[in-house]
Amino acid sequence: MKKILLLFGVITMLFSSGQKLQNIQSGEVLKYRIHYGLLNAGTASLTTLKVNYQGQPHLYVKGYGKTTGAVRAFFKVEDHYESFINYNTALPSFYVRNVKEGNYTQHFETVFNQSNQTLLLTDKEKNETKKLNSVKGIQDMLSAFYYLRTLSDSDLKVGAVKKVDVWIDDEMFPFQLKVIGVENLKTKFGNINCLKIIPQVISGRVFKDKEGVTLWVTNDANHVPVSIKAELAVGSLKADIESYSNVKYPLSFVK
Question: Which residues, other chains included, contact 234 with Cβ-Cβ below 8 Å and sequence gap of 6+?
Answer without folding.
Answer: none
